[in-house]
């Protein structure tokens, strides 16, 4: 019996095997590598022979002068992104839904989701160019109205705003399409019935369209909770400079500087471990919430 | 849907169309501006005269970039990465999705594997341990460092798994009766029937590989091995702003060859610009694919 099952199932195990080995090495390997956080790692002694040092790295981490500033920046930036990233696409989806000419609708959709597919290297390069205080087109445009040149990427007052705005610019088109896909699932008979009852377009939007979108909105909102500690490394790293560390330095960029630039491996791992730990809690509870509220399952 | 033809209704629709058009152009303008700068003379570009149309049209910057050995080398590494990486990714996605699409009764190991792979989506070791593992695997400075660590994409496998589950069970059963094994069924029945889903995943994987820059920057010891986006990171995005004062920083941006940077940005965006309009047709299916379950 067992032999027969083994014979029937072993090809399936074989199919999983390559993925299993790679995931074991490159996903589970780094998880076990987290023990670095409890060691005083030195490249000379290597991974195994570096001495344990308990929670010293964590003590040191909490003594870093700007650690709470960095945590605050991270949460602030990502929270703003989550809120703006919900409101803007929902609004645009509702507006696009009112468009009757399909050709126009398709063109708008195609243009607004373009930035989603470009990397932050490309977009960062573009933003640095157009936001330049001297030759950038944005400051030239503002100059027409007598506004003095603003160093958007070099001032702590502007930097978080630029991060949120450019993130919305990159992603709103793509999210809009997800919401529009949800709208196509609404039964047209509901609208016909509403018109007979004398409902205006506004009333229809309020009482049919929005409730029809609610499940998707709830789902995406809860899933985004898991990202509260991810303020967007790719974006920040390519836009920030030491001038805006006060407002723009986030956990991931701090880990990068500590670990890769300054080679403080153990300390950087400790900071990363704290982040991973909190993230796991956030992601698990967001999946749980999504399951309870929207009946969403990964499998 | 029913639309009113009253005056307020028509006014709203006109204003709405105008607003959406403005929004769409807002997404396009920065790219058009960079394109215009890349075709302009360097004096016009430095003087900030270029808006949405080239001033002093010329191709000098493109001629320069396309003759630059560093740029071409990085471009070829990127092409190698995209083709090799997409092939490996898709092979693993297909071979992982098939067994996991089986019911637990038919494949006893399934529950264990599902947890094993889902956990990798929830927990990660973070930057430093990730780097150390790849280093001790001896992959640093090799193209495989850009391909193997991210080769198992569990999210894509889940999308495909759900697609597989939607295929008629009778086909598989009939093939079994005729004596086909799992391997044959996968490649002769499941894969051909899943072409729409696979096309979506292939395009997304290609775009992902093309756009990746961080791993190239960290895992390649020598800039000669950088793929295009990592190379651009060093060229276009200057980090040394921290060392100079504000007035220096702004004059620096001008003496550095602005048109050349613009040309490189545009060339790196070009493949995406060519491919992405075709993504729309597919990716709506892809998005729905993941969200709808029986």
From TrEMBL, chain A:
Swiss-Prot/TrEMBL keywords: Cell membrane, Membrane, Transmembrane, Transmembrane helix, Transport
The UniProt record lists the keyword Transmembrane: yes
Gene3D superfamilies according to UniProt: MetI-like (1.10.3720.10)
CDD domains: TM_PBP2
Transmembrane segments: 12-38, 75-96, 117-138, 177-196, 208-229
Annotated PANTHER family: BLL4140 PROTEIN (PTHR43227)
Protein name, entry field: ABC transporter permease subunit
Biological source species: Paenibacillus sacheonensis
TrEMBL record, chain B:
Coiled coil: none
Origin superkingdom: Bacteria
Keyword Transport: yes
Family matches, as InterPro entries: MetI-like, MetI-like_sf
Gene3D superfamilies per record: MetI-like
Single GO cellular component term: plasma membrane
GO biological process: transmembrane transport
UniProt topology in membrane: Multi-pass membrane protein
ABC transmembrane type-1 domain mapped to chain residues: 75-279
Keywords, sorted A to Z: Cell membrane, Membrane, Transmembrane, Transmembrane helix, Transport
Record-annotated membrane-spanning stretches: 71-100, 112-131, 143-164, 185-210, 265-284
Location relative to the cell: Cell membrane
UniProt KW Membrane keyword: yes
CDD domains: TM_PBP2 (cd06261)
Family: Belongs to the binding-protein-dependent transport system permease family.
PANTHER family from the UniProt entry: ABC TRANSPORTER PERMEASE PROTEIN MG189-RELATED-RELATED, POLYGALACTURONAN_RHAMNOGALACTURONAN TRANSPORT SYSTEM PERMEASE PROTEIN YTCP
Protein name (Swiss-Prot/TrEMBL): ABC transporter permease subunit
Source organism: Paenibacillus sacheonensis
